[in-house]
Every structure is written in C-alpha cells, then in structure tokens.
Design a protein that fits this description.
Layout (H helix, E strand, L loop, with lengths): L2 H31 L31 E4 L2 H9 L2 H6 L8 H20 L4 E7 L9 E7 L6
Antiparallel strand pairs: 1-2, 2-3
Helix pairs in contact: 2-4
Length: 148
C-alpha cells in the first residue's frame, strides 16, 4: 500500500471514529442549545373594531345640515337596529356598496357614542354631493357635554 493510501485510510478511520464518538455529544449539545420549534400558533381572535371617540361635534360648512340626537334617541337607535335597517334598504345594485358602507359608518359612530357615558350621535347631510350620489352623509359620536 502506498503512503497516500495509508493516510487516506487512517484519515477515513479517524473521521468515522470521531463521528461515532462525538455524535452523542454533538446531538446532546445541539438538542439543548437550539430552542425547540415553536408550537403552531392558534388562530388569533378577530380584533375588536376600533371605535371613534366621542368628542365635540364636527364643524358644519355652509349648505350642510347637522342634527345632534339626544342620548335617549341615540340609545333608541341602537335598540331599533338602525344600522341593519340602513343596510337592508332597497337600493339599485350600483349603490349597494355605498349603502353598506353607510350602514357600517352609522354602526361605528353609534357604538362610539354609546361607549361614552351620555354620548349621542351627530348626523351631517351635505346636499351638494360631489361623488354622483344624491347626498353625502356623515355620522359622528359626540361627547355628553355637547348633547342636547
């Protein structure tokens, strides 16, 4: 056998012996050194919608109309399920998405108004619609000191 062949055999034997001797230590070390794989995350609960804060009434420009409901009327609107009534209004198909958005806006403003003690709802109507609609509406929660 040549000198190179002997060294290859020796090197191979040493490598195999080292692998066999070191494998329990390497496996034990790696088992303790590496963190365990994280468990699959449970599906997150849907986040609660962020409600608008009840504050001072929104300013109204010339030509717009503003109505501020009393706290009692605001509570009554919630018991009458006004957002659902708005969403179920029969409208032409092309206005359906806008009608659903209007109902969602009303629902959020109503919830924001009721989350504030004594809060109420402000409705702003702009008859000069710029988007091709008949009217533009806005619903806003109002803090108790500003409610009638």
């Amino acid at each position: 056998m040549s000198l190179i062949a002997r060294h290859r055999r020796s090197a191979t034997t040493c490598a195999v012996a080292f692998a066999l001797l070191a494998s329990p230590f390497v496996a034990a070390t790696s088992a303790h050194a590496a963190p365990a794989a994280p468990a699959p995350a449970a599906p997150a609960a849907p986040a609660a919608p962020i409600l608008p804060d009840a504050d001072a009434p929104m300013p109204v420009s010339d030509g717009e109309y503003s109505f501020i409901a009393t706290h009692d009327v605001t509570r009554r609107a919630a018991t009458m399920k006004a957002p659902e009534a708005i969403a179920s209004l029969p409208v032409p198909q092309q206005y359906r998405p806008a009608n659903l958005a209007l109902a969602a806006q009303f629902d959020q403003a109503l919830a924001g108004a009721l989350a504030a003690p004594g809060g109420c709802l402000q409705v702003i109507v702009d008859p000069r619609a710029r988007s091709g609609n008949l009217f533009n509406y806005g619903f806003f929660p109002v803090a108790a000191p500003y409610c009638p």
